[in-house]
Amino acid sequence: MAPRTLTRAAVAGLAAVALLGSAACGSGFDDSGDAAQSSGPASLQILIGSSGEAETKAVQDAAAKWASSSGNTATVTPAQDLTQQLGQSLAGGTPPDVFYVDAARFADYASVGALEPYGDKISNSGDFYESLRTTFTYDGKLYCAPKDFSTLALQINTDLWAKAGLTDADVPTTWDQLTATAQKIKAKGQVPLALGDTRDRIGAFLVQNGGWLLSKDGKQPTADTPENLAALQYVKSLLTSGLAKYPKQLDAGWSGEAFGKGKAVMTIEGNWIKGALQNDFPNVKYKVVALPAGPKGQGTLSFTQCWGIAAKSKYKDQAITFVEAMTSGEQQMSFAKAFGVMPSRQSVRDQYTSAFPADKVFVDGAAYAQGPVNTPKMDSVLKDLDTGLQGLTNGDPKTVLQNFDKNAKAALGGS
User: Fold this and answer.
1) What residues does each domain of the chain span?
2) Alpha carbon distance 191, 341 (integer Å)
3) Is 250 exposed, middle or buried (0-12, 13-18, 19+ CB in 10 A)?
4) Closest CA to 264 of 279, 295, 283, 243
């Protein structure tokens, strides 16, 4: 399944409640002052949310290499449930020194002082893609180094495409072309597009029309605008005319499954679909192209994690040198080869795209990608938005956007 979305949805909020409850409004992590620092050899505890054996082994090997060359020790533990375990350890005051932080959880942790804002201490931190730096910036500080990232693109089943009588000339590059191509596919009795039913997919259409859910500084809700309304009306038109269907309408858990089963000719997913199709549907032939541009230009969404360092760590300096090693261009390329992630540093972009030419479209998306909402206390607001989007076929786009603004205003205004 799509790891960066479905797993997160399943665990979001389980432990954040404990974390935020114990640390809300002035009773947070900052009152104890800086943890006493140890300058001797460090024994770093590192907690990761692993996608599987390949990732666990790659990070453990990289950590062992860093430890032996630096005279420290580093223990890498893959979490069973990262959000829950991290939330509990932070709330309990015994966090690991270094840990993966998902973009969607980042602001909750940063806002209560749980994270050390070390980002600009990493060499050449300006080399991280700007959209990723923005995602991990809170109150004007780059808190943590982006680990890797993914973006959304359009996948096309080439066999079904040909079966519908389509050629390369039909590959859609605009919304109008997407509609026209989808109509040709539907006329041949196939479902044109499998589309995920949450903001993590539909949000790309908002970006393509120059809109988004929050202001750039994350302080004002901006959902109820003509740009966002036109985007949601367009998505609704695809759904009501049968040109797009949600996964549940296609008897699938996510769009990649519907696409793999041949239930739709196109889908919109991230580069994680590659591994999922290889594992579950190895015979599906497909190609990947950029998402069609909207009236205001190209737009996609990015999903990312960073290397968080605990504000309570006794080994902050050593932790920073560890992250420095993990985010070097060379190490990022090793991780890319080991478990398929895209490096967060622009300087290895050409190296990456020559090693993985099929992923160039995803990397190119970094230039026009919008990161997730990374404002604290927005979890229930975003869940409510997703509920509204899931009912979009029969719902009112204007109401969905107005509800988001109303709920977001209350969350942003609260302590």
Assistant:
1) 3-150+303-370, 152-301+376-413
2) 30
3) middle
4) 243
Residues 110 and 56: their CA atoms lie apart, in Å, by 26
Mean pLDDT for 158-181 is 98
Phi–psi pair at 195, nearest 5 degrees: -125, 125
Asked if residue 11 has pLDDT above 60, the reply is no
Domain 3-150+303-370 matches domain 152-301+376-413 at the CATH topology level: yes
Listed range (79-83, 276-280, 366-370) with the worst mean pLDDT: 276-280
β-strands 266-270, 145-157 pairing: antiparallel
Instruction: Choose the CATH number for 3-150+303-370 among 3.40.50.300, 3.80.10.10, 3.40.190.10, 1.10.10.10.
Output: 3.40.190.10
Output the 3-class SS for 284-342: CCEEEECCCEECCECCEEEEEEEEEEECCCCCHHHHHHHHHHHCCHHHHHHHHHHHCCE
β-sheet bridge partners, residue 33:
none
**Model pTM?**
0.86
Q: Tell me, what's the pLDDT at 26?
A: 34
Place 28 in a pLDDT band, splitting at 50, 70 and 90.
very low
Query: DSSP code of 367?
Result: G
Q: What one-character DSSP code corresponds to residue 29? A: G
Q: Which two structure tokens, joined as six digits, stand for 184? A: 């040709």
The answer to whether residue 280 scores a pLDDT higher than 50 is: yes
pLDDT(316) > 60: yes
Q: How far apart are CA 413 and CA 318, in angstroms?
A: 38
- CA 148 from centroid of its chain's CA atoms: 10
For the domain made up of 152-301+376-413, give the CATH fold. D-Maltodextrin-Binding Protein; domain 2 (3.40.190)
Q: Tokens for 63, please give them.
A: 């950590």
pLDDT (tens digit, 9 = 90+) per residue, 85-131? Answer: 999 999 899 999 999 999 989 999 999 999 999 999 999 999 999 99
